[in-house]
Design brief:
The chain contains 11 helices and no strands.
Length: 224
């Protein structure tokens, strides 16, 4: 098992500033594919054409294109925010486990594991751009591999259910395993032990986040 784990360790040893820049670049590429090749004007018109007047939708799409730079500039902030939240969860978990590990090292663990979701998103956009036909916004937003929502029709279900069912997927489990692996390297404890800490800390944090999103959705009619 240690031999298998060792194959990933060289990625963990990359300077976190370089790794962060790499993740931002991959995110930017995924966003470019999404904006230019996946969510085209035709997709928006097919999805929203019956709900919004043609002129209004046309103006909204023009405004979106003129503000593309805002989406790209927000990538580092979005990445930092998510990694920071995961780091807080890990910090609480390691404190309860009585592991002495600094916030900076935990941040590196969370950042390293986040690479999984960044790569998955890029692969999704490549798939939609070159190997699949996108008919509506739902095809992209709620078509997530190995997620619970793939067993349902996202278009007909209640809007507040969509985000939680997309979030509950196999890659969340793999993400927890990657965190446990990096924690195993940092504190030199058995992988089974660090997996328990990862699942308890990040898993509970994810549950709290989903409950928060459900609360917002049900009380403030946020359509996700």
């Amino acid at each position: 098992m240690n031999l298998v784990f060792g194959q990933f360790k060289f990625l963990y040893q990359v300077d976190k500033r370089i790794y962060f820049a790499l993740l931002c670049g991959i995110n930017a590429l995924a966003l470019y594919l999404k904006q230019e090749s996946v969510l085209t004007d035709e997709v928006y018109f097919r999805t929203l054409g019956e709900q919004i007047a043609f002129e209004q939708l046309e103006k909204a799409l023009a405004m979106r294109k003129s503000n593309d730079w805002m989406f790209y500039s927000a990538i580092p902030l979005q990445l930092l925010f998510k990694v920071f939240l995961v780091t807080i969860c890990l910090n609480i978990g390691t404190l309860f486990a009585n592991y002495k590990i600094g916030f900076g090292r935990l941040f590196k663990i969370a950042l390293w594991a986040e690479g999984l979701f960044v790569v998955i998103e890029l692969l999704r956009m490549i798939w939609f751009a070159y190997f699949s036909t996108v008919e509506s916004l739902f095809d992209v937003r709620y078509n997530y591999p190995l997620s619970v929502i793939s067993f349902f029709d996202a278009e007909t279900m209640a809007s507040w259910l969509r985000y939680p069912l997309v979030t509950l997927n196999f890659f969340e489990l793999l993400f927890m395993a990657l965190i446990a692996l990096a924690l195993h390297w940092e504190v030199e404890k058995p992988f089974k032990t660090t997996l328990l800490i990862s699942g308890a800390s990040y898993g509970i944090g994810l549950l709290v986040w989903l409950v928060f999103i459900l609360f917002i959705s049900l009380n403030y009619v946020v359509f996700l």
